[in-house]
Amino acid sequence: MARLLLVRHGQASFGADDYDALSALGHEQARTLGRVLAARGVRPTLVLRGTMRRHQETLAGLLDGLGAPAPAEVDAGWDEFDFQHVVEIHRPLYRDRAAMMAELHVRERPEQAFQEVFDAATARWSSGAHDAEYAESFGSFRARVAISLRSARDRLREHRDIVAVSSGGPIAMASALLTAGPDAPAATLATLWAALNRVSVNTGVTKIISGRSGLSLSTFNEHTHVEREPRLLTYR
Fold first, then answer.
1. Between 31 and which of 2, 61, 196, 219 could a Cys-Cys bridge form, CB atoms 3.0 to 4.6 Å apart?
2. CA of residue 199 relative to chain centroid, distance
3. Are 168 and 176 in contact (CB under 8 A)?
4. Are strands 46-49 and 72-74 parallel, antiparallel or unpaired?
5. Angle at CA 99, nearest 5°, toward 83 and 117?
6. SS3 4
7. pLDDT tens for residues 78-134?
8. Residues 91-117 as b or e (16 or more Cβ within 10 Å = b)
9. Single pTM value for the model
């Protein structure tokens, strides 16, 4: 069977001027994953990535760890949704980065405080009740991930192993679509997507199998390669 491995990017730079750049730990996570995949005998003949810097840098580290080149293609459908925009619609104060950081750092655990705001903001976005307020509605996000998933399925006719570097949101959406089915009620899909997105680990690997009946979700968010060393286990 052909396999599509969806890889979440390494740790980004939360709180830095450029969130999209990988942290030093993020680069290490990517190289570690590459080495582990190589040891497992994974040799992708095609790699895909979104357009974001964190996707590009993660892929570079992963290929370095694999020790083998592979032709790469860029597919914007694997880009993360604009979570900053979604959060700012819910919490307008956060349009001012300094104000956001000041509010978060009043809390004992700033990252947990941001997660609470993020959860509320994405729940509002995914409800479908306020679509006109967003540059990309949740329904549009769902549709573009579905298109990229179908495109990857078609490429699996030519390639036994494809690795696609993306973000937590699109990977959770692809997994939700394969689990709930494309005709699942919007509310059901949104609930499942939120649950999957919340536990996504940096450089977690989601395996999708292509068989006679189409695509099937085999494993979600596998991350034993970072569990061996606790400092490598991150969620941002």
1. 61
2. 11
3. no
4. parallel
5. 40
6. strand
7. 999 999 999 999 999 999 988 998 999 999 888 889 999 999 999 999 999 999 999
8. beebeeeeebeebbeeeeebeeebeeb
9. 0.94
